[in-house]
């Protein structure tokens, strides 16, 4: 964390709520009320703050401005035959003076001069009425916005019932510091949109989850003195960002502005082919160089040598030495205890895994020149005059090895001593360019990753649609999670024709027809068509692929099985009603689908549109 020499002005006397002070000028003036069996009602006037507006606001003047707001609630905790709570409501705010009027009722028979605790807001009081909730509870559901829930404060007072009124004996004091964090990259040259931001103090994590990824977050934190505060966040680019600061001290009732200079790391599970040649830290993150891993406080242990079809391989940076085949296997597997890596499993690479790593760097099945060039900058090269065991047996007493001096695969006795280099195996993120028919129903995110069907995408990813069709050539269609703007078929037919995707003819939506859909021309590194209306045959294929059991003689249409892919986990909007396809019937009619049938209608009628992305 950087820039901890921050402005500490918090408006209205450092965030004090000013329910009342202990002098005559700010005393809460009671209005006498008759008591009855239903309780004693107390009406009081709170000292002025500012105009009737938002409870908490940042006006860009390096302060947090706190103002009363009508209908806010304060908990008045007191004892009368057990713990009691009175709900004090702000009934009015004087538009000229800013003074607020509150009203609350205490139980009939409450003794005069009964001690009480004031808790603001009302929701911050414990359910058992014994006091204020602990910090972990109060700060557990922050969304990064500036709102009254950040402004938690506690005071003390005395309830008068003979002459009904409230005397404040201890001014309500803010319980937390409020921060305005601006998230930037390591050299502060650009902001980073993140969701979530996790702040760790000691053993306590405070998770800040904004509605959408953002670079500016308001956060309330308990006061600390001389502690280490660590930050981690998932960026909108799916990378993991971290930073930390030792010896941090900040106080309650203060406002701090801080720039978080966060270095980007991607976890192994998010690796793609673009990460080949990068190093893996023992913490399971991917780093550009060995030095970058060291700077981040972890040990570089392997170099990514292959990523494809959901599998990743990272080769250890050094040899294990020379040993027999069985010892080689146990030695590599033993690293899972001696050098455990988050998200990866150490093993002796198989023959196919060795070949995949050689080929990923331009070599043949046993030519290591390209792999060695990359290893030279990350660790130790493979020995060109050496032979390396694979885990693949040839028969009961012999196993395959790579003889690098002449780039050949040979087999020999398992009792011979050959060189050993461990391999880290991990599950990698599959991307849209790798999609096959087996991926139908998976969620596609804006980064072009394929995610498990009917589940929420990881933090930092934005769900785009459901993979509905994949051709033998690896092209296909992605069904939108929500409708575009309703149109007539004649309007749709006038849109740009697109034929370069999925072997079909699509009608591309113009910007004004997208509704709330986001425009896309790429998902990750894969080019897409932007949103289009598909043909009748395309929609039928999508519905079949997503498990539809509903339709007529013309083909399948949508049903609950299809909508389950759209709504479950990713929160899309179910298909409901009638939708145009791009397929013409004749001169005056065109095809549309509804919940149980395909039919045709006059082209001039308006109907819903559920578009697709071609890739």
Description:
The chain folds into four domains: 12-176, Immunoglobulin-like; 177-267, Carboxypeptidase-like, regulatory domain (Immunoglobulin-like), CATH 2.60.40.1120; 271-427, Roll (Mannose-Binding Protein A, Chain A); 432-614, no CATH class. The protein is mostly beta strands and 615 residues long. The chain contains nine helices and 44 strands. Mean pLDDT is 87; it is low at 1-38 and 48-55. It is flat. The strands form ten sheets. Strands 10, 11, 12, 13, 14, 15, 16, 17, 18, 19, 20, 22 and 27 form a 13-stranded mixed sheet that branches. It has an eight-stranded antiparallel sheet with strand order 29-28-30-31-44-37-34-33. It has a seven-stranded antiparallel sheet with strand order 1-6-5-4-7-8-9, with no helix packed on it.
Tell the overall outline.
flat
Largest sheet: 13 strands, mixed
pLDDT averaged residue by residue: 87
Instruction: Detail the poorly predicted runs.
Output: 1-38, 48-55
Helix tally equals 9
Count of separate structural domains: 4
Counted beta strands = 44
The amount of beta strand, in percent, is 35-45%
Give the radius of gyration.
33 Å
Amino-to-carboxy terminus distance: 41 Å
Q: In a few lines, what is going on in this structure?
A:
The protein is mainly β. It has 9 helices and 44 strands.
SSE topology sketch:
Blueprint lengths: L11 H4 L24 E7 L9 E3 L5 E3 L6 E7 L3 E11 L6 E7 L7 E7 L14 H4 L14 E8 L4 E10 L1 E10 L8 E8 L2 E5 L7 E7 L1 E12 L4 E11 L4 E13 L11 E3 L3 E3 L2 H6 L4 E9 L2 E6 L4 E3 L1 H14 L6 E3 L3 H10 L8 H10 L8 E7 L4 E6 L4 E6 L4 E3 L2 E5 L15 E3 L4 E2 L11 E8 L5 E5 L6 E2 H5 L2 E3 L7 E3 L13 E2 L2 E2 L3 E3 L2 H10 L5 E2 L2 E2 L3 H8 L11 E6 L4 E5 L4 E5 L3 E2 L4 E3 L1
């Amino acid at each position: 964390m950087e820039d901890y020499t921050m402005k500490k002005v918090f408006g209205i006397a450092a965030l004090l709520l000013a329910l009342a002070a202990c002098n005559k000028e700010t005393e809460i003036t009671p209005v006498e009320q008759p008591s009855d069996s239903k309780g004693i009602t107390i009406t009081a006037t709170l000292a002025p703050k500012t105009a009737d507006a938002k409870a908490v606001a940042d006006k860009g003047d390096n302060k947090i401005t706190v103002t009363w707001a009508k209908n806010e609630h304060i908990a008045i905790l007191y004892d009368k035959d057990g713990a009691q709570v009175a709900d004090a409501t702000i009934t009015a705010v004087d538009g000229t003076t800013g003074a607020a009027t509150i009203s609350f009722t205490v139980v009939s028979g409450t003794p005069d001069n009964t001690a009480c605790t004031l808790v603001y807001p009302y929701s911050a009081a414990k359910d058992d009425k014994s006091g204020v909730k602990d910090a972990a509870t109060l700060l557990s559901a922050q969304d990064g916005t500036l709102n009254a829930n950040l402004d938690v404060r506690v005071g003390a007072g005395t309830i008068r019932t003979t002459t009904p009124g409230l005397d404040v004996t201890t001014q309500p004091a803010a319980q937390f510091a409020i921060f305005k964090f601006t998230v930037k990259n390591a050299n502060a040259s650009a902001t980073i949109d993140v969701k979530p931001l996790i702040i760790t103090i000691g053993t306590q994590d405070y998770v800040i989850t904004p509605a959408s990824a953002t670079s500016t977050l308001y956060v309330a934190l308990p006061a600390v003195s001389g502690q280490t505060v660590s930050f981690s966040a998932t960026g909108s680019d799916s990378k993991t960002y971290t930073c930390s600061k030792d010896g941090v001290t900040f106080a309650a009732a203060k406002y701090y502005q801080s720039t978080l200079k966060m270095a980007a790391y991607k976890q192994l599970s998010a690796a793609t082919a673009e990460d080949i040649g990068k190093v893996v830290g023992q913490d399971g993150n991917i780093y550009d160089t060995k030095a970058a891993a060291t700077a981040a406080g972890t040990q570089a242990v392997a170099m990514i040598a292959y990523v494809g079809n959901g599998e990743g391989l990272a080769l250890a940076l050094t040899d294990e030495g020379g040993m027999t085949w069985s010892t080689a296997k146990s030695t590599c597997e033993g690293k899972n205890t001696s050098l455990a890596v988050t998200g990866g499993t150490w093993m002796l690479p198989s023959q196919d895994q060795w070949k995949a790593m050689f080929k990923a760097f331009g070599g043949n099945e046993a030519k290591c020149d390209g792999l060695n060039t990359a290893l030279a900058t990350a660790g130790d090269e493979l020995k060109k005059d050496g032979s390396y065991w694979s885990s693949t047996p040839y028969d009961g007493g012999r196993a395959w090895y790579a003889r690098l001096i002449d780039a050949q695969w040979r087999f020999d006795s398992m009792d011979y001593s050959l060189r050993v280099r461990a391999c880290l195996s991990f599950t990698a993120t599959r991307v849209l360019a790798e999609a096959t028919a087996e991926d139908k129903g998976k969620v596609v995110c804006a980064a072009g990753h394929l995610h498990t069907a009917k589940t929420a995408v990881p933090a930092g990813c934005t769900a785009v649609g459901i993979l509905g069709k994949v051709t033998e050539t690896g092209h296909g269609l992605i069904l939108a999670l929500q409708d575009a703007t309703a149109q007539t078929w004649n309007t749709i037919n006038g849109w740009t024709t697109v034929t370069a995707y999925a072997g079909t003819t699509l009608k591309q939506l113009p910007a004004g027809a997208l509704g709330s859909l986001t425009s896309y021309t790429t998902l990750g590194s894969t080019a897409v068509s932007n949103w289009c209306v598909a043909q009748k045959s395309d929609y039928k294929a999508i519905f079949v692929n997503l498990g539809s059991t509903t339709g007529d003689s013309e083909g399948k249409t949508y049903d609950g099985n299809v909508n389950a892919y759209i709504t479950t986990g990713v929160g899309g909007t179910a298909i409901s009603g009638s939708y145009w396809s791009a397929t013409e019937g004749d001169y005056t009619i065109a095809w549309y689908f509804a919940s149980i049938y395909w039919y045709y209608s006059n082209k001039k009628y308006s109907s819903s549109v559920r578009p697709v992305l071609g890739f």
